[in-house]
Amino acid sequence: MAKKEDQFKSVISHAKEYGYIFQSSEIYDGLSAVYDYAQNGVELKNNIRNYWWKAMVQLHDNIVGIDAAILMHPTTWKASGHVDAFNDPLIDNKDSKKRYRADVLVEDYAAKIEGKIEKEVKKAEKRFGENFDKEQFLATNGRVKQHQEKIDTILKRLGRSLEKEDLVDVKALIEELGIACPESGSKNWTEVKQFNLMFGTKLGASADSAMDLYLRPETAQGIFVNFLNVQKTSRLKIPFGIAQTGKAFRNEIVARQFIFRMREFEQMEMQFFVRPNTQKEWYEKWKETRLKWHLSLGMGEDNYRFHDHEKLAHYADAAADIEFKFPFGFKELEGIHSRTDFDLSQHEQFSGKKLQYFDPELKESYVPYVVETSIGLDRMFLAVFSNSLQTEILENGSSRTVLKLPAVLAPTKAAILPLVKKDGLPELAKQIEAELKWDFKIAYDEKDAVGRRYRRQDAAGTPFCITVDHQSLEDQTVTLRHRDSMEQERVAIGTLASIIKEAVDVRSWLKKME
Q: Which of 42, 206, 392, 435 is the most exposed place for a label (fewest CB within 10 A)?
């Protein structure tokens, strides 16, 4: 566990040192669980959002995008169930005075058992070498099966208790498992209570007439209330989808794990409207499609898994998470939910307006069913960043820190480095920069020895370094260095744009989904 914690600490410090993420309003000691994206962070975030938008909207002729307002009429949240049911089960430790999410305490306990399974797998891998069959080992090893059964029993019970809102049993489970406060080791717990996560605000100039509003806790409702407007103006036929990216706000009492769980965060969501009784088939299709999108980035198939929900939300008839192996274990990265006709039916009831679709093939009107894909942009950022940060031991025994970001997402695509700051090399380097920056984000660096500049760009995640030397003046060639392999090749200046484009082009990366 200590190794994982050290790995995560290095992710957080690297994100600050290389201009990816800063604590919000740090000069005033910051705000807990609120972060700012710095100069490299905003580029990476934009690139992830763009990669999602292209795959989701641009490449689908039956999916369109919107950008709905953060503030919505308060009845929206009554209809959606958020006013009455958007709660987290919280528990306080009487000795440390620390507050925790009760479900997270139990899930973390289960994750520790999962860690034991991982240890057994690693031991077996060493013992059997190339002949090791992981799937067979997981299915047949007695100790592993015992651990897995314990995890399943714990999580099923937790799911059932939360579904029935049996908070007494959630506390009983925590006590039976002997879960202690992570900070103090104390097992002296209060009762479990529900806490609503929405931020309240006011709309209006005078205190007397101001209307109570909420900052949206999700982006989905902006799509549902605009369903008819979008359908009529785009003349889309079912099945079709509406996509949106944007900020959402949750008053997380136990916000933690850096940008994994924040109070202000960004979602990338798509609501896909389908005929009733076809939702299960579309649900399976979107599960498959979304996993392919993740795998297209080449971050390792073993780092992803599906987790089917034991406890279904009040609106769902099926739900699964795509979980990613973060430095602190497998956690939810994206949710795929079959939401039935709950949302549109609720808004129809609360607004008194018909939200139905006339199906010309069936010649009937109905409230469409919805399959949702919802991914946290900040979580995706953390998945990409933490997976890419590596320390390598080189042949000469020295080490390098390298951020092996997928080239399509890297903030800066190439750095241009004149070998020395004289003899006309900076002038030629600047010419190359001026030409390339029309198509790519380019860095220019002439400070320090070229080896140190390479290391700096490796750590910042730049896929290419272009070194301009005296030979460049004679034959118009430069040294192109590849971040991941550290290989260097001599290429003509005129070919740089096409080489970089081939490596970073969204088309070639998304084609992997086909």
A: 206
CB crowding 180-194: b at 16 or more within 10 Å, else e: bbeeeeeeebeebee
Closest C-alpha among 109, 143, 110 to residue 124: 143
- Which segments of 133-185 are extended strands (E)? none
**Is 96 domain-assigned?**
no
Tens digits of residue pLDDT in 370-423: 999 999 999 999 999 999 999 988 888 888 999 999 999 999 999 999 998 888
Q: Indicate if 349 and 436 belong to the same structural domain.
A: no
Q: In the predicted model, what is the mean pLDDT of residues 40-64?
A: 96
CA distances from 434 to 29, 423, 488, 491 (A): 40, 19, 23, 18
| CB-CB contact of 282 with 372 (8 Å) | no
Residue 389 tokens read as 């940060």
- Angstrom distance (rounded) from CA 110 to CA 147: 9
Best CA proximity match to 198, nearest among 102, 89, 79, 83: 83
Q: Please answer whether residues 158 and 173 qualify as being in contact, where contact means their C-beta atoms are separated by less than 8 angstroms.
A: yes
Does residue 155 lie in a domain region? Answer: no
207 inside domain: yes
The pLDDT tens digits of the residues spanning 315-326 come to 788 999 999 999
489 — phi, psi (to 5°)?
-140, 155
- The answer to whether the beta carbons of residues 218 and 267 sit under 8 Å apart is yes
Dist CA 376 CA 173 (whole Å) = 30
- Structural domain boundaries, residue 454: 412-513
Give the list of residues 6+ apart from residue 1 with CB closer than 8 angstroms, or none. 112, 115
CATH number of 433's domain: 3.40.50.800
Q: Using alpha carbons only, what angle is made at residue 309 by residues 217 and 306, rounded to the nearest 5 degrees?
A: 100
Domain count, the chain: 2
Going from the C-alpha of 267 to that of each of 216, 218, 278, 369, 477, the distances in angstroms are 11, 8, 26, 21, 44
Q: What residue type is assigned to position 399 of the chain?
A: S
For residue 58, the one-letter residue type is: Q
- The residue-averaged pLDDT of 302-316 equals 84
Q: Is the peptide bond before 239 cis (omega within 30 degrees of 0)?
A: yes
β-bridge mates for residue 318, sequence order = 338
